[in-house]
Design the sequence.
């Protein structure tokens, strides 16, 4: 494994030691503080479509970024978890208002972001409103971007009601990725989620509304699949309404060729002003979500790394740099400069190969050192991308959780938290929340951690390890697992 690392914001290459020093100089003194998605798992044409898409490939989300532009605010249905004052909750966190743009502004913003963030690979339109219903604006935005930045993939998210009329346009624009939100395949269940839809110039209510929505969603899925467009299905898990039913949804969308199924927890609060929020409808617990995901094993492949982004999100999935690119900060004239991005892609191609090779070595070492029934461990990782342990504990706003056993290392989920360290000093009350966030985890891997938080974590039964700074995640997680579960040398010799 190479000890050289590339800084994700500056594309500079340096040694592990140099970067550790740079991090300390950054004000971080130690005392202050799917899917299965390797190329061999799918045909080359599909791999080509997903390999740089951070949502369609878990591996890609360590290297590539998406941005959303909020250009299509009109919507043709009403979901009980949505308040039109905010963004479309089918793909975004509820209660968030994004910056609305014209197609021209959006194209200018995409160029500005692409020039600054070489990881950018996908432009998505994911609300507010429905991208297929407000089609003229969606189409115009995609056309403008495609003319000027042909290497950016285009992606959209829709409820599917208006999509069938636009599938030919999608083909003309070479769009490979569409997200359909499908919360039910039984219209009776739909009546509890959708009070009305607007279809063929008329408002429809009750069972008729859900029946039409269901038929159009299935038609959309079939049409997209027939044309080779990859479909990710988003479903909002609503306890007591569609939670058990989503098992059936999972099977049906698999049968119809969906590439991925992303089951998202309902986020519901009275202050969002939604029907569900005001009625006190709760969202699922993390354990309920996991139970449903486990029950879906054998069905459509699940996406587990979704971050329920904003409709104007910018950056890697675990970060949001949208505030650096609001329209008042985007110059009136911007010219696309592809050079930095090409350099980055070349680096990623090599880095991915290196990481896969390192992961294979780690797996083989674990297989020989650990008994088959040694049991699994969950390990939290602080990373800012690149598939490495490269983030200071105090700077982490989320931890990625990996499961490891004798079979290997798998991404499971992420857990959000507020960063503990602000301006070089740790905040005790935040540390308490971080510890709560890490319930059930007994080890954290990070690039650096101060003595105080390390001691507090240890008191809570969580060991923080910085010895694997800048290692690949798989290498580090496997090494910790072997150290904890490895057979003693003598036992291995006689095994
Ligand atoms: Fe955006 Fe969605 Fe395309 Fe990704 S997001 S339109 S598929 S580019 Fe991704 Fe964000 Fe989850 Fe969406 S993490 S909310 S799944
Ligand atoms: Fe809201 Fe999106 Fe549902 Fe329309 S489709 S009502 S914008 S959540």
Sequence:
């Amino acid at each position: 494994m190479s000890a050289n690392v590339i800084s994700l914001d500056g594309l500079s290459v340096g040694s592990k030691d140099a970067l550790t020093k740079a991090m300390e100089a950054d004000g971080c003194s130690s005392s202050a503080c799917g899917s299965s998605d390797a190329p061999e798992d799918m045909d080359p044409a599909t791999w080509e479509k997903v390999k740089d898409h951070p949502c369609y490939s878990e591996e890609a989300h360590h290297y590539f970024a998406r941005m959303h532009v909020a250009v299509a605010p009109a919507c043709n249905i009403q979901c009980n978890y949505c308040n039109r004052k905010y963004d479309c909750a089918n793909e975004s966190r509820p209660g968030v208002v994004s910056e609305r743009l014209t197609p021209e502004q959006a194209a200018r913003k995409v160029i500005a972001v692409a020039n600054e963030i070489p990881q950018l690979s996908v432009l998505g339109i994911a609300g507010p409103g429905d991208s297929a219903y407000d089609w003229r604006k969606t189409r115009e935005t995609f056309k403008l971007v495609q003319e000027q930045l042909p290497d950016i993939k285009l992606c959209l998210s829709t409820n599917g009601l208006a999509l069938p009329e636009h599938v030919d346009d999608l083909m003309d624009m070479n769009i490979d990725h569409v997200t359909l939100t499908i919360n039910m395949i039984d219209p009776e269940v739909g009546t509890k989620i959708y009070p009305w839809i607007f279809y063929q110039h008329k408002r429809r209510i009750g069972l008729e509304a859900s029946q039409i929505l269901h038929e159009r969603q299935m038609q959309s899925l079939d049409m997209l699949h027939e044309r080779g467009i990859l479909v990710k299905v988003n479903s909002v898990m609503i306890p007591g309404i569609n939670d058990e039913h989503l098992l059936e949804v999972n099977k049906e969308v698999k049968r119809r060729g969906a590439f991925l199924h992303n089951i998202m927890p309902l986020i519901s609060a009275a202050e969002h002003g939604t029907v569900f929020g005001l009625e006190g409808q709760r969202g699922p617990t993390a354990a309920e979500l996991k139970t449903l995901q486990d029950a879906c094993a054998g069905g459509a492949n699940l996406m587990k790394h979704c971050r329920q982004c904003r409709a104007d999100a910018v950056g890697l999935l675990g970060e949001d740099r949208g505030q650096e690119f609001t329209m008042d900060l985007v110059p009136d004239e911007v010219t696309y400069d592809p050079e930095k991005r090409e350099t980055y892609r070349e680096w990623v191609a090599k880095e991915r190969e290196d990481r896969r090779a390192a992961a294979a070595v780690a797996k083989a070492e674990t297989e020989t050192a650990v008994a088959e029934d040694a049991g699994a461990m969950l390990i939290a990782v602080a990373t800012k991308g690149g598939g490495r342990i490269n983030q200071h504990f105090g700077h982490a706003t989320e931890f990625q959780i990996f499961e490891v056993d004798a079979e290997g290392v798998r991404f499971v989920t992420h857990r959000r938290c507020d960063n503990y360290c602000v301006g070089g000093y740790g905040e005790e009350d935040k540390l308490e929340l971080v510890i709560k966030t890490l319930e059930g985890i007994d080890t954290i891997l990070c690039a650096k951690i101060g003595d105080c938080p390390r001691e507090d974590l240890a008191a809570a039964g969580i060991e923080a390890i910085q010895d694997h700074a800048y290692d690949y995640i798989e290498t580090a997680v496997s090494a910790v697992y072997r150290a904890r579960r490895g057979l003693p040398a003598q036992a291995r010799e006689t095994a």
